[in-house]
Amino acid sequence: MPRNPVTPPAEPQRTILVVDDEAKVRQTLVEFLTDEGYRVLEAADTRSADALLADPDVPLDLVLLDVRMPGEDGVSFLKRHGELAQRVPVLVMSGHGTIELAVEAVRLGAFDFLEKGFTPERLGIALSRAFEVGVLRRQNRELKEGLSALYRIVGTSRVMEELRAAIRRAAPTPAKILVLGENGVGKELVARAVHELSPRAAGAFVRLNCAAIPRDLVESELFGHEKGAFTGATVRKQGKLELAHAGTLFLDEVGDMNIDAQAKLLRALESNEFERVGGTRTLSFDARIIAATNQDLARAAEAGAFRRDLFYRLNVVPITVPPLRERAEDVPLLVEHYLGYFREEYGRPDLRVSDEALELMRRHRWPGNVRELRNLAERLVIMTPGDTVTALEVAGLLADGTGTQAPEMSLELEIEEGEGGLLKRSLDAAEKELVRRELEAAGWNVSAAARALGIDRANLHRKMRRYALTRNG
After folding, report:
1. Domain ranges for the chain
2. Residue 433: helix, strand or coil by DSSP?
3. Rounded to the nearest 5°, which phi and psi values hold at 285?
4. What is the three-class DSSP state of 184?
5. Could you tell me if 23 and 111 are in contact, meaning their C-beta atoms sit under 8 angstroms apart?
6. Other C-beta atoms within 10 Å of 349: how many?
7. Apex CA 256: angle with CA 252 and CA 259, to 5°?
8. Which residues pair with 62 in a beta bridge?
9. 19 and 49 in contact (C-beta within 8 Å)?
10. pLDDT tens across 42-55, in order?
11. Which residues, 6+ apart, have CB-to-CB distance to 298 below 8 Å?
12. DSSP letter at 277?
């Protein structure tokens, strides 16, 4: 195999297992891969490969597997090691007349196949792509294994049951999905649930936040770019469409994508083909598209801010995630869910929530939705001095803004007319303490205290009279 420069792998050194019965092929691959900076192991048959796979001290990053070998072939080997292709990328090598076997190996989870006689450049591209997707798959596994308890969909309300039903209906299909909802409701969680319930679950879940990327870099992130395509493009970069091959591409906040990028995305979705920025070669992709937005895209399309044809292309199956204020009955479940997670995270297994505190959270409007509730739960676990979260702690964090990400947080606590008893007394005590604290912190400057509390001066004066709060009192 002639020498051809390939970008060396990043540290730490990656390990590749070459499984091929032809000694000459193994020698050529070992020499080439070693020169490129990889650690290479070799096996002449699947029995030798089994021994290497069983060794816990051999950390493999990729397998190059011949599909036609004496004894057990590569396809049978993959069937026997059903989990292998999920743990590390497997590239199968096929000779003349074995393409059907290679295709069968891809169906079993192999990342790609190379027809023997491939060039060093073709091998280098395949390795680079396989490693990038392998990293994404590992991150997805870690997210599911380590954080599944945190990110699963929680709630038994009617609207949440309808949401789960919509996910179950849409997930097995290849249809494009548009997830709608306010900030913080969990749109990405819905997209992940669709992916995990789909036939593409073994593939990568790749996310592109269109709002978090400078508008002039969206195309590079989406389609990738060639070396020298623009200032700073020192190496070729694969885009999200390539990385999501055989998996799912989640376009978060798609309403913030600029018009030029929208046009190119539309062409890619219509043809399943694209070109990297600065490139001339047409590349194909096979990824499911799920988009999400907190905007009214139909209205944006009417106003010319979003392409109408792209809106129709993305809006095949719309799924709306309800705001938390529309499912207040789920708040206790969510509180317990997140508190349970953070109790373990911060080593506070005995922390409990009083009924009054829970009722206060149930009545809160949650302008920041589930994200706000999660944030509040974490702070309560950290900041509560005793073993019981009281209404005072909850009201304190809500009123000073540390329990929410919404700048318009109001101090007003909702109590239905005619209510009384312990809850009413607890809330009054909490509000009085908060008002007194902010007045003292502001040196009894009513305007400054009102700003800190997020209410106007007249409202603060009413509360001062109600609770008989004076500088000398």
Report:
1. 15-134, 155-322, 325-466
2. helix
3. -145, 155
4. coil
5. no
6. 9
7. 120
8. 16
9. yes
10. 999 999 999 888 87
11. 311
12. B
Burial tier of 433 (Cβ tally within 10 Å: 0-12, 13-18, 19+): middle
Rounded to the nearest 10°, the torsion over CA 127, 128, 130, 135 is: 140
What's the CATH class of domain 15-134?
A: alpha beta
CB 106 within 8 A of CB 113: yes
Whole-angstrom distance, CA of residue 207 vs CA of residue 375? 22
Domain covering 155-322, topology: Rossmann fold (3.40.50)
Which CATH number describes the domain made up of 325-466?
A: 1.10.8.60
Sign of CA dihedral 32, 36, 40, 45: negative
Dihedral sign (CA 367, 340, 342, 351): positive
**Where do we find the tokens 């919404």?**
406
Nearest in space to 127 (alpha carbons), one of 207, 42, 238, 28: 238
**How would you write the pLDDT of the chain (473 residues) with one tens digit per residue?**
444 444 433 346 789 999 999 999 999 999 999 988 899 999 999 999 998 888 777 788 899 999 888 888 888 999 888 778 878 899 999 876 677 877 888 888 888 888 888 888 889 888 988 888 777 777 666 555 544 434 578 999 999 999 999 999 999 999 999 999 999 999 999 999 999 889 998 888 999 999 888 877 888 999 998 888 888 778 888 899 989 988 999 999 999 999 999 999 999 999 999 999 998 889 989 999 999 999 999 999 999 999 999 999 999 999 999 999 999 999 999 999 999 889 988 899 999 999 888 988 998 999 999 999 999 999 999 999 889 998 888 988 886 554 443 333 334 444 443 444 555 666 677 778 778 888 888 888 888 888 777 677 888 888 888 888 888 76
Instruction: Calculate the average pLDDT of the chain.
Output: 84
Is the CB of residue 139 less than 8 Å from the CB of residue 247? no
Give the whole-angstrom CA distance, residue 466 versus residue 450.
15
Angle in degrees, CA 110, 114, 118, rounded to 5 = 160
DSSP 388: E
Tokens encoding 462: 């009413």
Tell me whether domains 155-322 and 325-466 share a fold: no
Which residues does 451 contact at the CB level (< 8 Å), separation at least 6? none
Residue with tokens 């999660």: 374
Helix (H, G, I), strand (E, B) or coil at 336: helix
